[in-house]
Amino acid sequence: MKRYFAVLLIGLFLLAANGCCLKKTASEPVQAKQEPVQEETVVKHEEPQEVPPTAMELYAEQYGQLPLQHTVEKGECLWWISEYKKIYNDPFMWPLIYKANRDKINDPDLIYPGQVFYIPRTFDLGNLKESRRSAGAPRPYLPPQDANIPAELRDELGWGF
């Protein structure tokens, strides 16, 4: 055991003295010093780095991918349609759909399977509040924060993205 320990100690000493790698020897003979060569200055044009999109831009992109029309299925009503997550995620916003499709809807209580309704995606705060007020929403007629509304309107209300 003492021999093993002594060999190990000598090996560690040699390793520390010589380093982990062998030094490379010069393969070419040493030449006399030459005059320094002037190098041309190369100007690198850095391409502008891509700026990651802001949270508002990401939300606007997702909002832009929401459907712009909906085909009525049996048993649906405007309340349910506007409550779908992919539509508005707020049932009190159904008057927006009704107003945009008055040429197809005579009575908002009577819609029929197969009808195709346009889903408005651009509206201002006044239209939103009026829509929710006429649908019977509680004051101050603001939608829940998880409602699908335009990014600019969401920013105007001071909600995060």
Describe the structure.
With 161 residues, this protein is mostly helical. It has a domain at 68-156: Membrane-bound Lytic Murein Transglycosylase D, Chain A. Helices cover 35% and strands 4% of the residues. The chain has 6 helices and 2 strands. The chain has a two-stranded antiparallel sheet with strand order 1-2. The two termini are 69 Å apart. The mean pLDDT is 84.
Task: List its traits.
161 residues, mainly alpha, Membrane-bound Lytic Murein Transglycosylase D, Chain A, 2 strands, 35% helix
**What is the CATH level 1 assignment of the domain at 68-156?**
Alpha Beta
CATH architecture of the domain at 68-156: Roll
Distance between the termini: 69 Å
Number of beta strands: 2
What's the arrangement of secondary structure elements?
Layout lengths: L1 H17 L36 H10 L4 E3 L6 H6 L10 H7 L15 E3 L6 H10 L16 H6 L5
Entry summary:
With 161 residues, the protein is mainly alpha-helical.
